[in-house]
Design a protein that fits this description.
It is a single chain. It is built from 3 helices and 8 strands, in the order H-E-H-E-E-E-E-E-E-H-E. A hairpin with a 2-residue loop joins strand 3 and strand 4.
Length: about 160
């Protein structure tokens, strides 16, 4: 077998992260169309992530936010998502680098992307969830793998393209 000098796995992941960038730019400019909404899971300890300390203590490894009903000031700047969300009726500013994102999903169209990160070494860790209290939703309960697959549809995993 020949050695992969071109690193297609890294190119594919970069292209898929561009989907997240373009989506955020479009929504920041035009708002959320139709029933679209996003679940964004990210590594809270990733360099450049800015979340209030009490949230970082509660979600020490991963955190999921929902952009649906009440979010403010969404923009893409310096390769990071900047947004203000309400947690227990307190507005908090978050900065989430695109490279810290492990999952980006839009359940309204059964779309999800799952990313690998250099800082993420655990293959089977369950992401923790933190949903803004004003979003009209409660923190989601743990789901079985089958329920997750039914909700998300096909998750694009880059593992099959990676060098072992």
């Amino acid at each position: 077998m020949s050695e992969d000098f071109l690193r297609y796995d890294l190119m594919i992941e970069a292209a898929l992260r561009d989907v997240v960038r373009e989506t955020v730019e479009t929504v920041a400019r035009d708002g959320l169309p139709g029933d679209h909404h996003f679940y964004i899971t990210f590594l809270t300890r990733f360099p450049g992530v800015k979340v209030p300390e009490y949230l970082r203590k509660q979600y020490q490894d991963e955190m999921t936010i929902v952009l649906q009903y009440q979010f403010f000031g969404l923009k893409l700047e310096d390769d990071s998502i900047q947004v203000t969300l309400s947690f227990n009726n307190v507005k908090e500013n978050l900065i989430v680098p695109i490279d810290s994102i492990t999952t980006f999903a839009d359940p309204s169209v059964n779309f999800a992307l799952q990313f690998q990160n250099a800082g993420d070494t655990s293959e089977e860790s369950e992401p923790e969830s933190a949903m803004p209290s004003d979003s009209g939703k409660e923190a989601k309960p743990k789901e079985t793998e089958k329920e997750k697959e039914e909700k998300r549809g096909e998750v694009i995993s880059l593992d099959k393209f990676r060098k072992k």
